[in-house]
Amino acid sequence: MKLLGISGTIVGSKTAIAVHQVLEAVRRDNPDIETQLLDLKQYDVQFCDGRDPAAYTGDTRKVIDIVAEADFYMIGTPIFQSSLTGVLKNLFDLVPVNALYNKVMGFVATGGTYQHYLVVENQLKPIAGYFRAFVAPSYVYLHDDHFNPDKQIADEDVLRRIDRLAEEVVFMQRKLKS
């Protein structure tokens, strides 16, 4: 089984740190699960223009293939202007619907206000529903205050919630695929 963590931004580092933390929790308790972090800032992904996903080339094709080949996902986004990033939305537009069908998704989000956690409920979960993906009941929202000056997650409650989210996505994946 392959868990793909997606950092859905091309700026900053806190989202990738949060996604990586979930992947680490999965690896710690489930050494049989392969994990990979897809950090979108490392790729030059084209804007979706409506063509068949198979027609894209270069980094765009590579990213589409990486997403399609995964068995389940941990998706992260910073919250900008009370919404997910355009980079992540573009990825969702590029990926064929059947690539995410019946796959498990977990979400982490980072932001500067405590109200931005609602983006997971109001935007990310409906997108997962469109893809007919299974969504972990928990998600983790990290405020800037949850990180120390070295950009490490310092809040113990957040770290516990990350562990719980890691357990949930693995549990769901194993049950759905058994």
From TrEMBL:
Identify the residues that the record assigns to the NADPH-dependent FMN reductase-like domain, covering every copy: 1-144
Coiled-coil annotation reads none
Q: Which Pfam families match?
A: FMN_red
Q: Which domain of life is it from?
A: Bacteria
Q: Name one GO molecular function term.
A: oxidoreductase activity
Q: Is-annotated flag, keyword Oxidoreductase?
A: yes
Against InterPro entries, the record matches this protein to: Flavoprotein-like_sf (IPR029039), FMN_Rdtase-like_dom (IPR005025), NAD(P)H-dep_FMN_reductase (IPR051814)
The record's keywords, sorted A to Z, are: Flavoprotein, FMN, Oxidoreductase
Q: Does the keyword Flavoprotein apply?
A: yes
Spell out the protein name for this chain: NAD(P)H-dependent oxidoreductase
> Where does this protein come from, organism-wise?
Paenibacillus oceani
Record lineage: Bacteria, Bacillati, Bacillota, Bacilli, Bacillales
